[in-house]
Amino acid sequence: MRQNPHDRKAAILDAALHVARTHGYAHISREQIATQAACAPALVSRYYGTMTLLRRAIMGAAIARRDLTVLAQGLATKDKRAMGADAELRRAAVESLL
Fold it and tell me: In this predicted structure, what is the pLDDT of residue 3?
């Protein structure tokens, strides 16, 4: 059964966060995300466009969900969204690595 577009987009983002956590935010690929989400890479592109937009969505979700692992990786790569997260959240992400 096909998922509705809103649910499918959310499932792809969940899969992308999982891939970022397990393979590293700096090393994610559209193909890895598609495999995790059980869809075609083209569907990832359809919902999130470029890798830049996809990374922006991943980091936004990591911040919203307080995913310290992905946020810490974003800080390490100087991701603009990660750097713009609340100071307390950034501190917690860094401390989670210690």
Answer: 79
Confidence of residue 1 (pLDDT cuts 50, 70, 90): low
Residues 64-74 have pLDDT tens digits of 999 999 999 99
Q: Measured between alpha carbons, how far is 35 from 76 in angstroms, rounded to an integer?
A: 26
Q: Which residues are CB-contacts of 29 (< 8 A; sequence separation ≥ 6)?
A: none
Does residue 24 contact residue 3 with C-beta atoms inside 8 Å? no
Structure tokens of 1? Answer: 């059964």
> What is d(CA 96, CA 50) in angstroms, rounded to the nearest whole number?
30
Joined tokens for residue 92: 């917690």
